[in-house]
Specification:
mainly alpha
C-alpha cells in the first residue's frame, strides 16, 4: 500500500510541477511568477490545496480528527484545535507538524514535504491564509 501511495504522490507532484512550469522536483509556484492574480499572494486553490491533496488527504480526508479536503476544513481545524493561524506560521500547528517541531512529523509514514513546499505553505499562512 505504501508503494502505491508513494507512486501516486510522485505522479501528483510531477503533474503539479509541470502545471507550475517546471519538472517534478521544481519549487512550487507561489503566485509571484504569473501563477494567477492576488497581487503576488500564494493561491490556496491553485497551490496549497493540491499539495494537501497529494500528501495529506490519505489520512486527513473526510470524517476523522482533522480534514484537509477544503479551505473550510483547513480553517476549521480538528481535535487538536486550530491548525492554521492566519498571519502566524510559526505558531500554526500545520507548520509545526510539517517541520517536525511537534512529533510525529507529517505526513505520517511518508517522506516529509520538501522545504520549498513547506516554505510555500508558510508563505500562504504569513500572507493571511486567504481563500483565493
Amino acid at each position: 500500500m505504501k508503494h502505491v501511495l508513494s507512486l501516486f504522490r510522485f505522479a501528483t507532484i510531477s503533474v503539479l510541477g509541470v502545471a507550475c512550469g517546471g519538472g517534478g522536483d521544481s519549487e512550487p509556484s507561489n503566485g509571484d511568477g504569473g501563477g494567477g492574480g492576488g497581487g503576488g499572494q500564494t493561491e490556496f486553490a491553485a497551490v496549497i490545496l493540491p499539495m494537501l491533496q497529494a500528501d495529506c488527504i490519505t489520512c486527513h480526508g473526510g470524517a476523522g480528527d482533522l480534514s484537509l479536503e477544503s479551505y473550510a476544513d483547513v480553517m476549521l481545524g480538528g481535535i487538536s484545535g486550530q491548525v492554521v493561524i492566519p498571519g502566524d506560521p510559526d505558531n500554526s500547528l500545520l507548520i509545526k507538524r510539517l517541520e517536525g517541531v511537534i512529533k510525529p512529523q507529517m505526513p505520517l509514514d511518508l517522506p516529509p514535504l520538501s522545504q520549498p513546499q513547506i516554505d510555500t505553505i508558510r508563505d500562504w499562512i504569513a500572507e493571511g491564509a486567504l481563500d483565493n
